[in-house]
UniProtKB/TrEMBL annotation, chain A:
InterPro entries: M28_fam, Peptidase_M28. This is M28 family peptidase. Residues 107-294 form the Peptidase M28 domain. The lineage of its organism: Bacteria, Pseudomonadati, Bacteroidota, Flavobacteriia, Flavobacteriales. It comes from the Bacteria.
Automatic annotation (TrEMBL), chain B:
Keywords: Membrane, Transmembrane, Transmembrane helix. The keyword Transmembrane helix applies. This is Uncharacterized protein. It comes from Winogradskyella immobilis. The chain crosses the membrane at residues 12-29, 35-55, 67-86, 98-120.
Length: 303, 132
């Protein structure tokens, strides 16, 4: 009789824990989604990014400047220390270099220090620029809003044993120009970087399986992501996609992973690099659930 | 003061020649500051016939100015052609490059052509001044 009561008691406590966790998750989603919708609408020209200025793309120097201003303000408001990285570099083509001025841009960067002394850094981020004539909602305002929502949640953690750096890269669409410049600078800085996580396109999930792909992950990160995804019952696939910002860090020897919707599996936006890549095509439920998962990953790394 | 007086006394075509050197060198130096050397190396190679003529007076400076003016002219024409191609079809052109084809770019390109043509036409005047 006693042991039966014990089992019932154990089951009740377990159920209670699940219930509390579910309530927490719902709370997190209800907090995340309005923030992501708001930022997304500003970045994609649904709402003004500044005063009465609307941007239909984030490709020209002026549009990118406005985006930097807006996102820098967002990061400051959620308590991160802004440390933007300005760079000038080659146009990626010797012929163009002889004709044009060097390429220049700004990687929006901010630091969230550990709550106890640590020299270790976890870096995450996504690119904020878009192709010309493309609002770039899924590619890659989704990555930006995911990163910002995670940043906001991390700032609320009472205990963090590592320092976090968020970087919103410029000029990914021009051949990962921004992330290449940042990775070069990071290598020179000799910071103790534990891992780098870049997010590119997280807004399409037609089969509603919440699945996503990790691109060219290091063995450590692949194992970690897969074991955590199993706990959340999220399908996770490893791919060899190299055409995004994670490649810049892999090339410099950092422990890196790229994160994306199911691009190789084919459950991906059909509007890529088109004028139809708009706010309306974003699956905000998928974006919020992915945000929750990525936040869980960083929370675990912070412990 | 001396330099200003010297410049005042200069033939305008000499000044134009100096301006053309400056434009090319500045382009090279712009890249040196960000750690990329080859634009300056190419500029130096293109300018080397002048240095050669300065030290070895055997060759005629007129021929060198002719070569230089044609080079500047070609550079301006290539810039204009590139602008035209991008105006017709900009697919595959990185945004960073695309947004540099501005009115300022067009004016500078035309300036290169004008300098090239002027230097070519007035090369003998420059030659006379330099040999004095």
């Amino acid at each position: 009789m006693k042991s039966l009561l014990k089992v019932i008691g154990y089951l009740w406590v377990t159920l209670l824990c699940f219930e509390v966790q579910a309530q927490k998750d719902t709370l997190l989603v209800s907090e995340i989604m309005p923030l992501q919708k708001e930022i997304m609408s500003r970045l994609t020209g649904k709402k003004p990014i500044k005063d009465s200025i609307y941007i239909g793309q984030r490709a020209s120097p002026r549009e990118r400047e406005l985006t930097v201003e807006f996102l820098s303000q967002q990061l400051t408001e959620i308590g991160w220390q802004l440390d933007n990285h300005h760079y000038k570099t080659t146009n990626g083509n010797p012929f163009l270099d002889l004709i044009l001025s060097p390429a220049s841009g700004v990687n929006i960067s901010a630091v969230l220090p550990a709550t106890r002394s640590s020299d270790e850094y976890v870096i995450f981020g996504s690119h904020y620029d878009s192709e010309r004539d493309c609002p770039g909602a899924i590619d890659n305002a989704t990555g930006v809003t995911l990163s910002l929502a995670v940043a906001s949640q991390l700032a609320q953690l009472k205990e963090r044993n590592v320092n976090f750096i968020i970087v919103l890269f410029d000029q990914e669409e021009d051949g990962e120009v921004g992330s290449k410049a940042y990775a070069k600078m990071l290598q020179k800085s000799k910071k103790n970087v534990y891992s780098v996580h870049t997010i590119d396109m997280m807004g399409w999930d037609e089969d509603n399986n919440r699945g996503f792909e990790i691109e060219l992950p290091s063995l450590d990160l692949e194992r970690f992501y897969k074991s955590e995804a199993e706990k959340f019952n999220i399908p996770l696939y490893t791919t060899k996609v190299s055409s995004s910002d994670h490649k810049s860090f892999i090339d410099r020897g950092f422990n890196t992973v790229g994160i994306s919707e199911e691009y190789v599996k084919g459950d991906t936006t059909p509007h890529l690099h088109r004028p139809t890549d708009t706010y309306e095509t974003v699956n905000f439920d998928f974006l919020a659930s992915s945000t929750q998962f990525i936040f869980h990953i960083f929370k675990t790394l912070a412990q | 003061m001396n330099i200003i007086q010297k410049l005042k006394g200069c033939n305008p075509y000499d000044l134009l020649l100096i301006l053309s050197f400056m434009l090319i060198l500045i382009k090279g130096l712009e890249y040196v500051f960000i750690g990329i050397l080859y634009p300056l190396v190419i500029s130096a190679i293109l300018l080397s016939p002048f240095v050669y003529c300065y030290f070895k007076k055997r060759c005629t400076i007129s021929k060198t100015i002719k070569y230089w003016s044609l080079l500047i002219l070609c550079y301006g024409v290539v810039r204009i052609l590139l602008n035209t191609i991008i105006y017709i079809d900009s697919r595959g052109i990185p945004s960073e490059a695309y947004y540099q084809f501005t009115l300022k770019y067009s004016i500078i390109s035309i300036l290169y052509v004008v300098i090239g043509v002027t230097l070519f036409r007035k090369r003998k005047h420059i030659f006379l001044n330099l040999s004095q």
